[in-house]
Amino acid sequence: MSLAYKHEQVAAIIAAQQGRPGALLPILHDMQDALGFIPPDAVALIATALNLTRAEVHGVITFYHYFRSTSPAKHTIQICCAEACQSMGAEQLVKHAEKRLAGRKDGEYALQPVYCLGLCATSPAMMVNDKLHARVTPERFDRLLKKIGGGS
Amino acid sequence: MSVKIFVPGDSAALALGADAVAQAILAEAARRKVDVNLVRNGSRGMLWLETLVEVQTVKGRVAYGPVSEEDVVGLFEVNFHTGGKHALCLGLTEEIPYLKRQERLTFARVGITDPLSLEDYLAHDGYQGLRKALDMQSADIVQQVTDSGLRGRGGAAFPTGIKWRTVLNAAATQKYVVCNADEGDSGTFADRMLMEGDPYLLIEGMTIAGLAVGATQGYIYVRSEYPHSITVLNEAIAVARRADYLGANILKSGKSFELEVRKGAGSYVCGEETAMLESLEGKRGVVRTKPPLPAIAGVFGKPTVINNVISLASVPIILAKGAAFYKDYGMGRSRGTLPFQLAGNIKHGGLIEKAFGVTLRELLYDFGGGSASGRPIKAVQVGGPLGAYLPESQWDTPLDYEAYTNLWAVLGHGGIVVHDDKADLAKLARYAMKFCAIESCGKCTPCRIGATRGVEVMDKIIANQDRTAQIELLRDLCDTMLNGSLCAMGGMTPYPVLSALNHFPRDFGIGDFGIVKKDAASGGHHA
Predict the structure, then answer these.
(1) Based on the domain organization, do A136 and A106 belong to the same domain?
(2) Which residues of A touch B186 (CB under 8 A)?
(3) Nearest CA in chain A to B379
(4) Measured between CB atoms, which of A56, A115, A121 is closest to B349?
(5) ipTM beyond 0.90?
(6) Do A119 and B185 touch (CB under 8 A)?
(7) Band of pLDDT at residue B512, cut at 50, 70 and 90
(8) Does the beta-carbon distance from B188 to A65 stay under 8 Å?
(9) Cβ separation of A122 and B188 shorter than 8 Å?
(10) Residue A52 lies in a domain
(11) A126-128 and A109-114: which strand pairing?
(12) Which burial class, exposed, middle or buried, applies to B393 when counting CB atoms under 10 A from its CB (0-12, 13-18, 19+)?
């Protein structure tokens, strides 16, 4: 298996945060920021550095929705599915997005639900990669999709 | 002379294209050789008007909105930079009724100042509370906060002063102040707007809390869905530290307080205070049993003050203007103001800071202007995903903690989500159970198993399978969750579920005379 990241990089991230109280979440965040995900073989290194068991580290990674153990899709589209966005048609927006993204190549797009982006007075809301969008109509969704290179 | 133009840098404005508007203004100004001083302020909270552009004139700030990138050239054509008339012109910002009718104590500066300018903060009465606190004994600070009647704005409404006194009286070598900025409730965005729009206010409030209880380290636990808040807070903390408002010797007083931002990771239950402590310690966000109270054994086992963003941000004005000033607002045992957040299917959604006692109807119609869809409003969920759905018969009750308790509802964090008559409350009740199943930490059985069974029961009710028995089962299940759960996650999920069932029985297939069957002809909808 060819690694997209260097072992030293992982070690450096751990070393930089190791001494902080409650260091595990900051380490996981730094790692995901740098590599896009938390490599499964980093678990043992983190566990050793923090004097935890691998099970504990694995437990934390899998508890939180935000952390992932595989590399992300090229574009991540998160549509808010919480109540405020539901009241303004989030469900229809999700259906529209699913239709538009159906049959795309694996690893190109990831469509995920998210529960509240704090844009509840300008619903429905979504996040595309790291950018926020509010009052998203199906037309606006199509324009944004086209902008990131997914228009048909 | 340069023209001062304000374009919000708040997340909601950014999500509606504020960056593009700002860039277009700078480009057009350069082309026309107009000297512009562009300030990225917080949002005024009139979110249907975002992007709201303001221009400083001799008469005051003039507002234009909602402005999109394409409007900018036209605005320059009418010399908006000197307050020129335009279809998007809203007149003087301060005179807009939505703003003028508010009582902004905590949000006094938000939208007005440059969030990251410490000079601006100081020029607008910033750090006056801290200056007073530095000359006071810890117990006296706690007394002021107690006397103000401030109660936890995160939802639980526990008296802040009492909480602080417990931490003050706990003997320990190290104590902590933790700010709960895990604002996960749908329909709430006050914490986010405050962190992005006036970060020094939160920093000041936390510093005062530290002085009050003898804590020297603070953490702000911010959810990962709020990246802009995290950036703004980190920058503001760095500026405050450089100017000696944080650090080992605050304003040469010999007192110290350090502050750090910690990022959550997408777990709703981490907004529950003990789950948040676990998360801060680097563990799974699993709820702790109480006792011990966090005030006695909190983060890293030490006495810890845990307060919501708005609670802490309300403290500086209490210290600066006195407990009596703050207590003068509100009604009954709900003193001061609450930043209400009007969201969902509403025409004029946004942030409305008002004294307790205003009614839902006033907020929905006088401020909100009715639903966004133009259809009748059917149900309003107050207090987040764990709050009750209120039918129209309850909209005239004053928004007050006790009055809402009497309705078997909760004010919570002041989030208000509006649904029009197309909403199916049975579906929303199912969603409440599903959300609980997704977000349950898994520690206690009523929540972990109950929520999953709740979804199944709701599915059967919706599909009209043995409906009478299933509704009885749902009530029984809710009773178990209410009384047997370890925290509010499972313990309050019955609020939306049962309020939906009790107030909107037709959506569950129950008519006025008991159970009715949904048949194909009615399509499952009842008038």
Answers:
(1) yes
(2) 80, 82-85, 115-116, 120
(3) A87
(4) A121
(5) yes
(6) no
(7) low
(8) no
(9) no
(10) yes
(11) unpaired
(12) exposed
**A70 within a domain of the structure (yes/no):** no
Owner of token pair 């190791």: A18
> Rounded CA gap, B126 and B331, in Å?
27
Q: B397-418 burial string, b = 16+ CB within 10 Å, else e?
A: bbbbbebbeeeebbbbbbbbbb
The CATH number covering residue A123 comes to: 3.40.30.10
Which residue type sits at B416?
I
Nearest CA in chain B to A82: B186
Q: Do A80 and A140 share a domain, yes or no?
A: yes
Complete domains list, chain B, with CATH: 3-100 (3.40.30.10), 118-327 (3.40.50.11540), 330-420 (3.10.20.600), 425-522 (1.20.1440.230)
Q: Give the Cα separation of A116 and B185 in Å (integer).
A: 7
Residue A4 has pLDDT above 60, yes or no: no
- Contact (Cβ atoms closer than 8 angstroms) between residue A41 and residue A2: no
Tell me whether residue A141 is in a domain. Answer: yes
d(CA A23, CA A60): 12
Range of the domain at A44: 7-63
Q: Which residues of B touch A53 (CB under 8 A)?
A: none
CB within 8 Å: B185 and A64:
no
Whether A2 maps to a domain, the answer reads no
Nearest Cβ partner of B16 from A23, A114, A122?
Answer: A122
User: Is the Cβ pair A22, B280 closer than 8 Å?
Assistant: yes
pLDDT at B523: 38
Q: Verify whether the Cβ–Cβ distance B186 to A83 is below 8 Å.
A: yes
**Residue A28 structure tokens:** 């996981």
CA distances from B25 to A134, B51, B428 (A): 21, 12, 43
Tell me: cis bond preceding A124? Omega within 30 of 0 counts.
yes
For the segment B321-368, what is each residue's pLDDT rounded down to a tens digit? 999 999 999 999 999 999 999 999 999 999 999 999 999 999 999 999
